[in-house]
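Sanity check record (used in CI):
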Amino acid sequence: MNKRYFTVGMAGHIDHGKTALTKVLTNVDTDRLKEEKERQISIEPGFAPLFEDDQLQISIIDVPGHERFIRQMIAGVAGIDFVVLVIAADEGVMPQTLEHAEILSFLNIKDGLIALTKVDRADEELLSLVEEEIRDNLKGTIFENVPILPVSSVTGEGCAFLKSSIVEKLLLLPERHHYGHFRLPIDQVFSIKGQGTIVRGTIYEGSVTEGDKLSILPNNMNVKVRQIQVHHEQVKNAYAGQRTALNITGVPLQMVKRGDTIVSPDFLNTTDIMDVSIRVVGKLKFPIKQRMPIKCYIGTTEVMGKIVFFDRNEVALEKEEILCQLRLDAPIVAKRGDRFIIRRPSPHETIGGGWIVDPNGKRYKFGEETIALLQRKKTGSFSERFLSLLEEKKALQKDVLLTDMSISQEELKKEIQHQEWIVFNDFITHRKIIKELFQDINRYLTDFHHLYPLRTGLTKAELIQSLKRKYPQHLIEFGLKQGVEHENWEYKGPYIFQKDFNPYLPEKWINPVKSLLATLKKDTWKVDNFSLYLERVGIDTKISQEITQYLVENGSIIPLTESIYWHKDIFWSYADDLKSKTNPSFDMQEAKAILGFSRKYLVPFLETLDKFKITLRKDNDRRWNE
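Expected output for Selenocysteine-specific elongation factor:
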């Protein structure tokens, strides 16, 4: 796409002129609520179009400056690309100036400007002192070195230059990702008669088209996009970076709230335990205690929870990032890399912020081992982090991987081009995992062949059941197929066995089996119950079934019934004899006359010929199968 879309935040202390400046820049009064008009303060974020040409479309969010509305302020700036920090020349840096600056730094807003408002109320000497104060107070924030532009919403001084400066700055910023899955944290929900439910927010990533089917999380409600508006104009598509209103069907107004997230189906999961990396504010009023209640602000969501440390029990002063965990009281929508703010519920204060290392955290033990694990998650490459995931799951579906790793389709495609990654049936694994699976399959087969040398092999179902404790079934099935293709093992009927394995009689049973076969052959067709032959040569019941199956599978004996077995030579000699003395078709009476068997042996003998497809039976006749 050629055109790029950006949203600019207008932040700062209450009554420093954010709304007035926004009106001068956009000709829109963003204080739309009756209460806002009466009290002359902003309560909810206000939105207005700032600039549009063939290259850019820029929107402004004017966020509340009052401490009581900090949630609305965070929700407003959560999706911005650039910020204008508003400071009044006649008051200078105030408490919410500093808190907003810290919040914006924690949210990793990369660039901005300072608008020094109400310059019509200050002389040059005061302006110089205020600028010096701003530089001193904003050291260590993103505003430390940004331009300070004097403006007046009353006279219009500097406003055109401020607007052009914003445009110039945004031209230098990279565009957001318009491809891939769609995500929009909802900051407003309302209804228009005849239109139904409307949700509004800044698109974090992806794009949306009229008719798209989406999901609203965390309650997983399916909806359809009926109409899309950008700045009150109906459009067919909207893209990352745009302030957008979606008219949706499939869910009533009362079921949707600010803090919900509307996403592409099956894109993101909800979570209530997150591994995070945080920084704390420079001047904490009170230490942060282990498992202390906190309010977490992420996207447009506010949720209570607690902070869990693994290498300390409190934080009073810390300049470095701290690896820890947030355990929340309700599920939220998040992915790796998302930024958040944490505040103390009482007394109210912003205590820090950071980014999500892993949105799917587990409960870990206190200690260095956990910190080392979190450090690997934080700094590891794609391969290292994916392999860490695979240690537990062994293979992941592409869509699940995109969510768990918090990467785009394009990034994933680039990563899995390397030969160490294996893609199968929409799953991805690593050669290391397949090698590990092969080793386990070979170990199971080796152990089985050693324990049961008489058997052809292990059934596929039994092998899968044994391996499922460690691997998902779809990966086992893939590995077994790969092993056959690489000639590591083979199938025979339901059995799987190592390629170089042949069933064999343990030395202990060689002579007893020879004796059994000799006696069976001597008794020709009129044999005893086969269990008696086994008993006579000392083959006990523990091994008798194994030996019987072995002799059947290698063709030494032929089962006629569950208890009647003939020596192979006897069976085949009678089959040849009968065939030589009958026509192509014969019946049971002819066979009895030729062979002289009693019915006890004749019927199963003929049925076994049918079973082997030597003969084909039709009614009372049989035909030799040529």
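Residues 33-43 have pLDDT under 50 and may be disordered. If this sentence no longer matches the regenerated tokens, the check is flagged for review.
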